[in-house]
Write a structure and sequence with these properties.
- InterPro entries: NT_sf, WH-like_DNA-bd_sf.
- It comes from Rhodococcus baikonurensis.
- This is Nucleotidyltransferase domain-containing protein.
- By secondary structure, the protein is an alpha+beta fold.
- It has two domains: 80 residues, Winged helix-like DNA-binding domain superfamily/Winged helix DNA-binding domain (Arc Repressor Mutant, subunit A, Orthogonal Bundle); 125 residues, Beta Polymerase, domain 2, CATH 3.30.460.
- Helices cover 51% and strands 17% of the residues.
- A four-stranded mixed β-sheet has the order 5-4-3-6, sandwiched between helices. A two-stranded antiparallel sheet has the order 1-2.
- It is elongated.
Length: 213
């Protein structure tokens, strides 16, 4: 799936993109406003979709003077599932946070990065995750850690249909990579979405390297 285009999970048509715009905020939109958001779509195509959705009752149409405005009908029976689809990205991040919270102190930090974080996913995109392990493992800890990584990758695929690509660092390895100015870590600092630990801790580990450079 494409987390940035959640409605494509059920429909590849323009209808889904238009519904995503209307569901993004509880306000009215004109055709031109929708077109500015869906930059590659024609105004005529958007108008036809809105007309069809008005006929279904999912969208409410108002006219003030010569201006036509449209908004999602929050009382429609379909409004709840439409809103749920529009929130798939935040639902995914919430599930990740909840799952990783169960890892306890073993996990120092985790973030989603790459196209899933920047809103540029394609249908076959991987979902990239960075994990920083808190400390050296106790006896048998490596096996438990690997099992958790395997399960995490499985869950990401089951939740989204996309492969999970997990990059892991032990905490000392992470500090060494940060000191060396590892580009991947800079990308995570700029665009990553934190799902475990705190962004302030992550950023603080990169500052010494930034001052040296």
């Amino acid at each position: 799936m494409q987390l940035n285009r959640p409605f494509t999970t059920v429909t590849p048509t323009l209808d889904g993109d238009v519904l995503a715009v209307l569901a993004s905020a509880g306000v009215t939109f004109t055709v031109s406003q929708v077109q500015r958001i869906l930059a590659t779509r024609s105004g005529e195509g958007i108008r036809k979709v809105l007309t069809r959705l008005v006929q279904q009752g999912v969208v409410l149409h108002d006219q003030v003077g010569r201006t036509n405005t449209y908004r999602l009908n929050s009382e429609h029976l379909a409004a709840e599932p439409i809103m749920a689809l529009s929130r798939l990205n935040s639902t995914f991040l919430g599930r990740l946070e909840e799952h990783l919270d169960g890892w306890g102190k073993t996990l120092r930090y985790a973030a989603v990065f790459g196209s899933a974080a920047t809103g540029r996913m394609q249908l076959d995109s991987d979902i990239d995750l960075l994990l920083v392990r808190a400390a050296a493992p106790v006896h048998g800890g490596d096996d438990a850690w690997e099992e958790r990584l395997t399960e995490l990758a499985r869950l990401v695929t089951m939740w989204t249909g996309n492969d999970g690509r997990i990059v892991t660092y032990a905490e000392d390895e992470f500090r060494a990579a940060a000191a060396a100015g590892e580009p991947l870590l800079r990308d995570v600092a700029k665009q990553g979405l934190t799902v475990a630990g705190t962004r302030s801790w992550f950023s603080s580990q990169l500052r010494p390297a930034a001052r040296r450079s």
